[in-house]
Design goal:
single chain; 374 residues; Rossmann fold; 3 domains; five-stranded parallel beta sheet; three-stranded antiparallel beta sheet; 8 strands
Length: 374
């Protein structure tokens, strides 16, 4: 039988943007309750008051960021008096970097790269808010990265107490947390806690039925008819549920379709999906490794190399194996390992034996981790 092949100028994608991870769908289902709660928290800002502070909490790929982005788009279409600013704390995780992004949103450009102090940047932000009589709403996505860098109290204190130094300024914050072990009431100091007082909005994992509906809508919107059969869609859903992250399913659809298109076929086959999954399932690892500092990357590399020989590693022995060539004390080393645990790169377990032993287990295959570190 002659195989049906694409012409050189044909494509399987009706709209490739649908499969980008930052795509905000026009119809956003299964998060209606969370969207209503968020809208209620934001509402005072639409009337010129200070928005209520909010924490959006849930595992990765549960719709937290998309919910906020969708509401922010509606705000920008409705009013100029409430200015929403989104900051990705995986990328911008220092006080200066975060306030530079806020300045860019208000002024239309970043502050000068050198010769500008933090106070000058924040003075400029406050003057714009006072002059324009606008309310500021800042979303700090993956705010747990500020915890790892010990920046969270400095950032929140500056935002939430701005009105004391600059009368008339009104600022609210939305914090997005994917690390379910983080307890912000314990993480922030008393000065911040007294003015923060957030409302928690929980985003539960999507059910299989919800994942199925979301992916089916993406396929209908983003691919031409008959590119992906019901059987192949079921396979994508199975692998998405196995990963526990909706973003893996969306990335998988994109990669599998690109593979079929490269082979000049008019439909996606099982082999396309299986090959794509081998890349898509490491989406979290890929993103996370990019955010690590050089010394953290080196610690992870040493752990991955050691993991080739032993699945579980004693933390003290791992540290001692580094010798003196890693300029880091044990306390700092253990802080880095705890950060890896929070970032879901390793599992850190306490066991009783001769004293209290800390055991490290790498969550991914060592060679895969070393590959992304390169």
């Amino acid at each position: 039988m002659k195989k049906s092949l694409l012409q050189w100028d044909e494509t399987l994608f009706r709209d490739p943007e649908v499969f980008e991870l930052d795509f905000v769908p026009e119809q956003f289902h299964h998060r209606e309750n969370q969207m209503r709660e968020l809208a209620f928290q934001i509402q005072p800002g639409l009337r010129g008051g200070r928005p209520l502070n909010t924490v959006c909490r849930g595992l990765p790929g549960t719709g937290k960021t998309t919910s906020v982005r969708k509401l922010f788009a509606e705000i920008e279409d409705t009013t100029k008096k409430l200015v929403p600013v989104y900051v990705n704390c995986q990328i911008d995780n220092t006080k200066f970097a975060i306030f530079s992004q806020i300045y860019r949103k208000l002024a239309g450009h970043l502050p000068p790269a050198s010769g500008t102090s933090f106070k000058q940047v924040f003075d400029a932000i406050a003057r714009i808010l006072q002059r324009e009589e606008t309310v500021l709403l800042v979303t700090l996505d993956d705010v747990n990265y500020l915890l790892y860098e010990n920046e969270i109290n400095k950032v929140l204190y500056t935002l939430l107490r701005a009105h004391e130094a600059y009368p008339g300024t009104r600022i609210g914050v939305i914090l997005i947390i994917s690390d379910m072990s983080v307890d912000l009431t314990q993480a922030v100091d008393a000065r911040v806690a007294s003015v923060f007082r957030p409302t928690d909005i929980y985003f539960p994992p999507y059910s299989r039925e919800e994942v199925s509906e979301i992916l089916k809508e993406r396929v209908q919107q983003g691919l031409y008819p008959n590119v992906l059969s019901e059987e192949m869609l079921t396979l994508v859903i199975d692998q998405t549920m196995q990963s526990g992250d909706l973003r893996v399913g969306i990335d998988l659809l994109k990669r599998a379709t690109l593979t079929a298109e490269k082979a000049a076929r008019k439909s996606v086959e099982k082999d396309d999906i299986c090959k794509a999954y081998e890349v898509s399932k490491y989406l979290h690892l890929s993103f996370t490794v990019k955010t690590l500092k050089p010394e953290e990357r080196e610690v992870l590399r040493r752990i991955a190399e050691r993991a080739k020989g032993e699945q579980e590693m004693n933390a003290g022995e791992v540290y001692r194996s580094f010798g003196k060539d890693l300029a880091m004390g044990y306390t700092r080393f253990y802080e880095v390992v705890k950060k890896f645990d929070a970032m879901r790169l390793v599992d850190l377990e306490y066991r009783d034996g001769k004293g209290r032993t800390r055991v490290i287990s790498l969550r991914y295959e060592p060679d895969r981790v070393l590959g992304y570190l390169k």
